[in-house]
Amino acid sequence: MANFPKDFLFGTATSSYQIEGAVNEDGRTPSIWDTFSKINGMTYNGDTGDIACDHYHRYKEDIGILKEIGVKAYRFSIAWPRIFPDRGKFNPKGMDFYKKLIEELLKNDITPVATIYHWDLPQWAGDMDGWLNSECINWYLEYSSKLFEEIGDIIPMWITHNEPWCASILSYGIGEHAPGHKDYREALIAAHHILLSHGKAVKVFRDMNVKNSQIGIALNLTPAYPATETKEDNLAAKYADGFTNRWFLDPIFKGNYPIDMIELFKKEIGEFDFINEKDLSIISQPIDFLGINFYSRSIVKYKEDTLLKGVGVEGTGKKTDMGWEISPESLYDLLNRLKKEYTRIPLYITENGAAFKDIITEDRRIHDQERIEYIKEHLKVSNKFIKEGGNLKGYFLWSLLDNFEWAYGYSKRFGIVYVDFETQKRILKDSAIWYKEVINKAAID
Ligand code: FCB
Predict the structure, then answer these.
(1) Residue partners of 442: CB distance under 8 A and separation at least 6
(2) CA distance to 57, 174, 263, 376, 399, per residue, from 396 (Å)
(3) Which of 138, 102, 136 is nearest to 122 (CA)?
(4) Cα angle 256-257-261, degrees, rounded to a multiple of 5
(5) 324: which DSSP letter?
(6) Which positions are annotated as active-site residues?
(7) Rg over CA atoms, the chain
(8) Fewer CB in 10 Å around end: N or C, the chain?
């Protein structure tokens, strides 16, 4: 039996565009994801978040489920286009939804954890070049300050950004996420603006003296391992690590971008003239905690004629329905590395979970044993890290509900609660029932 500390925060996570639906209600205007998902071929089956889990109307039922599972904290995100449906125009009705949501959570003794930006940039901002435009930082600050003013002190944990790597590189460089551009110069500009907006929001948060509340960021971190022990493969792994992990960790914790990556990227994108001298001291504002979104690892092999001098190779471990290799040991490596190389501030796993092909039995149960195993293994290494003195304070399971999995639409189910998208009926999977016991005992067998 592995026990967790009494105050360990067992939670679940979701995000606005993936669950809310109600895209035209109470003054909300489209986000870049509304636009992107409606472009032919951009999402599986042409799926969109128009209805998603209809959480906007069913939030009370969903909080009831959280209560039933015994979840201590709930991580959700706020839809920017509900709060500022037009440039400079605050929409109190959009704000009301989150006030009601938070009130309901608090009534049920569930700690609300809010992400300010989980990718649903208002389309009006997208129309002015989104994160490529440095003005976007000011729009983001106007939006964040309003949130701090309205609900700052009733949210004990604020997350400025969810996975800046995805919001920049996957969105402006690889083109898989909205707005679907494929330009690495753009990707790095967007990444820089997002990081800068993070640092500036932290500053605003401190200046506003928001009470009883902390602020941090959630990074997607994927440890990279060399395919073989050759010098070349090691170099490729170092670059892969620079690309996903160090490019974000270094500016936040060390106040600089990794030099090796700057040199490498320069060949592709030219000069880094969009970085100003003072930017890095802003980005590296002290934060209160670091959120880690962890799903898998990568294994890389040297390949000369590629941007990163490497390509991914498949691991031998079991895969989830996303094709991601299951590798809890790499979460353990990652936690230790963060502790050793980056920071001693509290860490939270802000996302971890797995998609599997769920089958409903005749008696309408979902025996998702594989998901249980996945979560258990990741909790085990988390526990080991804590026992060895690691400062890990909580775990947010992705996700509470099956939901709109971005480019994969509704084809991938990450929930511990099954959603029948035809009827919007929710069914607790075995994993939810198992998680309830884990939380209740604050331990895993
Ligand atoms: C993360 C995202 C989250 C969800 C999971 C599976 O990258 O933050 O919204 O899509 O992956």
Answers:
(1) 3, 4, 5, 6, 8, 10
(2) 23, 27, 36, 13, 8
(3) 136
(4) 155
(5) P
(6) 163, 351
(7) 21
(8) N
Are the C-beta atoms of residues 162 and 118 closer than 8 Å to each other? yes
CA–centroid distance, residue 43 to ligand 1 (Å):
15
Label the pairing between strands 443-444 and 2-3.
antiparallel
Cα 402 from Cα 135, distance rounded (Å)? 35
**Gap from CA of 33 to ligand 1 centroid (Å):** 14
The amino acid present at 402, given as its one-letter code, is D
The C-alpha angle 58, 425, 74, rounded to 5 degrees, equals 50
For 65, phi and psi rounded to 5 degrees?
-65, -40
> Does residue 327 have a cis peptide bond before it, meaning omega lies within 30 degrees of 0?
no
Structure tokens at 32: 């870049």
Cβ distance 300 to 226 under 8 Å? Answer: yes
Task: Please say whether the beta carbons of 420 and 427 come within 8 A.
Answer: yes
Closest listed residue to residue 43, CA positions, set 210, 246, 226, 180:
180
For residue 27, give the DSSP letter.
G
Is any atom of ligand 1 closer than 6 Å to the C-beta of 15? yes
Cα angle, residue 318 at apex, residues 369 and 3 outer, rounded to 5°? 55
- Give 31-81 pLDDT, tens digit per residue: 999 999 999 999 999 999 999 999 999 999 999 999 999 999 999 999 999
Q: Which DSSP state fits 342?
A: I
Mean pLDDT, residues 226-242: 98
**Ligand 1 atom closest to Cα of residue 355:** 6
Condensed to tens digits (0 to 9), the pLDDT of residues 376-397 reads 999 999 999 999 999 999 999 9
**Å from CA of 217 to ligand 1 middle:** 14
d(CA 436, CA 445) in angstroms, rounded, equals 13
Rounded to 5 degrees, φ, ψ at 96 are -55, -35
Q: Is the CB of 16 under 6 A from ligand 1?
A: no
Among 396, 398, 400, which is best to mutate for testing ligand 1, by the most ligand atoms less than 8 A from CB? 398
Residue 118: how many CB atoms within 10 A of its CB?
26
Strands (E), 146-249: 157-162, 214-220, 224-226
Structure confidence at residue 1 (pLDDT): 85
User: Could you tell me which of 240, 256, 259 has the C-alpha nearest to residue 248?
Assistant: 256
- Are the C-beta atoms of residues 341 and 291 closer than 8 Å to each other? no
Task: Read off the pLDDT of each residue in 424-441 and give the average, rounded to a whole number.
Answer: 98
Tokens linked to 155: 């949210």
Type of residue numbered 283: I
